Structure formats: structure tokens, C-alpha cells
Amino acid sequence: MASFPRDRFDDIPSDVDRVGAHRSPRKRGRGWIAFAWSVVATAVLVVVGLFALSFFDSRFQLPFAQESATPSETPTVIETAEPVTDPSTLDPAYLAALTLSVLNGTPTQGLSNTAGDQIAAAGWPNPSRAAASNTSEPLTIVYYSNPDDEGVARGIAQLVGATDVQLSDAFPTAAITVVLGADYVPPAAG
Q1: pLDDT per residue over 33-42, tens digit each?
Q2: How far apart are CA 11 and CA 92, in angstroms?
Q3: Which keywords describe this protein according to UniProt (predicted)?
Q4: Domain check: are 59 and 98 in the same one?
Q5: Helix, strand or coil, per DSSP, at residue 44
């Protein structure tokens, strides 16, 4: 190892307590400031991520951004029509033009297909099937948009075991719409 002659920088005064790099001591509380900034940054990233997820996935909705559905006033229908339980008694042209849909309002997958098959097997036109926007419907309800279809709606309600039949224009894609609820009991496999 090389040895160098002593110079003025080798003598350290005795009243100086510094060793190594000459930095001032850290101020108290600096660790909490860094922690607070990291919490704020995490919160911002989470919020931006949730907004991005709701933008790219239409099924995901932010809890505070959900629109509360205000149910439209649906008039209470007094049973005035007899249930039509046999579709062969109807005019074939009417039956060919009749549009039906089944919406699964439960978290159980495949119930709309089960109920749709049940309706088609009874002789009714094959209904379209889909998941409802709300998967926590408590009751199975049959909606019809034309007062002339009330008897058919009541017959389909009896077939699927619906709790209620209502006149409503909430489902414009079909003349009769069955919304399955938690009370729907699929038919036993035979």
C-alpha cells in the first residue's frame, strides 16, 4: 500500500464531531411526509385504474357512479283476461308474429336457457334469451307491452311459475318479456 506524506488535511480538530460525508441531520417527521405522498399516489392510481376499468369493461360500474334506477310507475293490472295456456288455440298468424324474451335476473348461469326451452317446449314461439341488467331480482315477473297480450302473458306466467304479470313498456324488444327472479324453479328433468 502506498504511503503519502502528512499534510494539513490529516489533522482533525478535536471539537468537530463529523465523520464521513458532511450532511446535516435529517429533520424529524420526514418519514411521515414520504409515507403520506405514497398513500396519495396509491389512491390516485387506484381511482384512475377503476375509471379505466369501467371505461373498457361495460359490465363493471363504479359504485358511486351507478345510476339508481327509478322505477317507472307501472299501473297495477287487475286480472281481466283469462290465461291462455294452449298456444294451439291462437291464430297462427298472431302466434308467428309474437315475440318473446327471457331475461335471467339471478346470478345462476343458464336459467334463461332453461326457461326459454320450457316455453318453447309448451308450443310458444322460441324466445330470445339473455342476462338481465340486474342479477338480484327477487321475483319472477312477466311483462307485456300490449293490453291485448295479457291472456298470453298470464298463460306464460302460469307455465314458468311467475309471481306477477304487469303491463309495461320497459321492454320494447319483445311483446312479452319474462324476467326470472330468485323464486324461479326450473322444471324437473324428465
Answers
A1: 888 999 999 9
A2: 113
A3: Membrane, Transmembrane, Transmembrane helix
A4: no
A5: helix
